[in-house]
Amino acid sequence: MDTSRFTAGEPAIEITQVAPACWHALDGGRVTGRAEAGARPDGRVFLSVDAWHRSVFDRLAAAMLAALPDPLHTVVDGTDHELLASWQAAGLTIRRCEWEYVVPTAVEPTALPPGVTIEPAAEGPLRALDRIVRAEVEATVDWAEMPAEVLPWQRTDTVVDPKKYTVAVENGEYVGLVRIVRAARLPRIGLVAVRADRQRHGIARALLTHSLNTLHRNGISHAYAEVNETNTAATALFDGIGARRADSIVELMRDGK
């Protein structure tokens, strides 16, 4: 638990906007804090403040929030209660909480239902399945709850790179998909999805364990995934294959409503 993020004292500072999305806190010409806003691939703008003093944080956050249009987002380690309270005091509210799972790649394979195979994705059928999954999600939890990498603003094409996908095929039709993104730290399980009419048959688990074992054969011991803590099906899936909850992440938002 981080209990000493901010030091005591009230430094005399001046807040200066040094770029369209960057602010500095200056104490006698010395930079004592920085604030930045950046857009993620899905179009959402995320804020960050780096400051030693709570008063510097508060003034940087206030300057940034006054200058930028809503909606605005930030993410905080779930154990950093002081930073979480600081963003809430600045006017942001908790939007969602996620678990970050560390996932072993040496897992027991899951048997597929009869007639279902796992294959590399072909672009045309993958895009057709992607559209089906998109419609089903939009009709239930909404795309705002999906990982940023799904790119909800890209209405006509959410499949950025078909080579990242593996699919489950039944009677010549794609019924499920998993996307693994090779990242610098650990491979990221970006999405596991099964068509609504083929759920509860073990396809998601089979796709996931197949992909993890492929990583293991390539010398990769672990991957990671971020799961909304309210998504009971996803948390059960990862808990069931021995994944470990390593961190919690809190996303906060100011939407101006």
Keywords:
257 residues; alpha+beta; Aminopeptidase; 2 domains; 4-stranded antiparallel β-sheet; 25% helix; elongated
CATH architecture of the largest domain: 3-Layer(aba) Sandwich
The proportion of residues forming helix, as a percent range, comes to 10-25%
Number of strands: 12
Main-sheet strand order equals 1-2-3-4
CATH superfamily of the largest domain: Gcn5-related N-acetyltransferase (GNAT)
Categorize the overall geometry: elongated
Report the CATH topology name of the largest domain: Aminopeptidase
Report the mean per-residue pLDDT as an integer: 87
Distance between the termini: 32 Å
Task: Output the helix-strand order.
Answer: EEEEHEHEEHEEEHEHE
Cα Rg: 21 Å
Number of separate helices: 5
The description of the largest β-sheet is: 4 strands, antiparallel
Outline the low-pLDDT stretches.
Answer: 147-154
Give the class from helix and strand content and strand pairing.
alpha+beta
- The CATH class label of the largest domain is Alpha Beta
Number of domains: 2
Proportion in β-strands: 35-45%
Fold blueprint:
Blueprint: E1 14-19, E2 22-27, E3 30-39, E4 45-51, H1 54-67, E5 72-77, H2 81-89, E6 93-104, E7 116-120, H3 123-138, E8 165-170, E9 173-181, E10 188-194, H4 203-217, E11 222-228, H5 232-240, E12 244-254
Antiparallel strand pairs: 1-2, 2-3, 3-4, 5-12, 6-11, 6-12, 7-8, 8-9, 9-10
Describe the structure.
- It is a single chain.
- This protein has helices at residues 54-67, 81-89, 123-138, 203-217, 232-240; strands at 14-19, 22-27, 30-39, 45-51, 72-77, 93-104, 116-120, 165-170, 173-181, 188-194, 222-228, 244-254.
- The chain is α+β, with helices and mostly antiparallel strands.
- The protein has 2 domains: 14-91, Aminopeptidase (3-Layer(aba) Sandwich), CATH 3.40.630.30; 102-247, Aminopeptidase (3-Layer(aba) Sandwich), CATH 3.40.630.
- The strands form 3 sheets. A 4-stranded antiparallel beta sheet has the order 1-2-3-4, with helices on one face.
- Strand 9 and strand 10 form a beta hairpin.
